[in-house]
Amino acid sequence: MSVGRGTAGYLMHRARLIFQDGAELTVSVEAGQTLLESALAVDAPVRYDCCTGSCGSCVVQCVDGTTVVDSTHQVPVNADELAEGLRPACLTRLSSDAAFELPYSLNAPASMPAKHSAQIVELRRAAPSVALLTLKLDRADGLAFQSGQYVRLAAPGVGEARAYSIASTAAELPLIELMIRLVPDGKMSRWVQEIAKVGDRVKLQVPLGSFGLDDRARRHVFVAGGTGLAPVLSMIRSLRGRARPALLCFGCTRRQELFYEQELAALAAAMPELEVRIAVMEGADGTLRSGTAVSLLQREDFDAETVCYLCGPPPMVDAARKALTAHGVASKAIRAERFQPGG
Fold it and tell me: What is the pTM of this model?
C-alpha cells in the first residue's frame, strides 16, 4: 500500500514501512523532511512522543537504503546501535529510497495517545526508593495499549508530567499499575511521598512508546533493572496462557531495595513456562544471587527463535546488549528501552 504524495518540484525519496505483522506502507519523503514528519503528514500510524530524540519512542530498524541522522540533537541510540541500523525516525532523513522495520503491528494497533482523568485507588511503598501506584481511569472505552508502553502522568502541583511504564495489562483496564522510582529532591517523588493519597485525582496521557513483545518469537528473555521491571512485567503477564517459554532476569542494587519479590514468585508459580532469576549487587541471601541482572544470563538461555527485551538504566542496557551479543544473540533479536529516573 502506498500513502502520500510529495510536493512537485522537490527531490523525493520513498520510505517503505514494514510492520511486525508483515503489513506495509510506503510514504514519500521530501528533501529536508524527517522520516517521522513524512509519516505524520499522511497520518501513517507510527508511534512517537517527544519528536526531539530524547524519548526513543520512534526508533525503527533501517534494513535498506542510506540515511542521515541529525547528531546536533540528543540521539536515543548509541553508536553500536546506529551501526546496526537502529534509527530515531524524528532525526532521520533519507539520502535514497529506504526500508524500515517497525516493532509493532499495523492491523492490531494500540490506541492513539489521548488525555485521561484517573483516581488513585492504591499507593504503597514497595522499597525505600520505589512506590507502587494504581490508578483507575474514569473512562477506558476504546483504549487499547501494548504491553511495554508507558503513560505521561501529571500530578497536581508538580508542574511537569513524568513518563512511567505500565506494569499492568490492557485486560486489567480501567486499572493501570505504575512503578515509581523515588528520586531525592524530585518534584514527583515528593508528591508521591508527602502529598498523594487514595482518592486523589490525576491526569495522564496514554498510550505512548513502541517497546513491546515480538509475537513471532517462540521464546522470550527479559532483563530488567529496578523499576525497569514495569514494562517487562506487563509483557510477561500478557504471555500467560500462551505456552511460550520465558525467562526474567531481575536485579536491584541492594537487598533492601529489592521489591516485588513475592509477586514474582506467585507469578512464576502460576506460569510454569516462566523462570525467574533475581540478583542483588549487595546483601544477597537465600535464593538471591549476588550480581546484576545481566550476570544471570547464560549462553544456553538462547536459541535462534529467542527475542530479548532490556529495560533499566542506560548502563545496564548497554551491558546487557554486550552480554547478549557475546552469547551469540543477533542484534535484530534484541529490543531495548532505556529510562532516566524522572524527578
Answer: 0.91
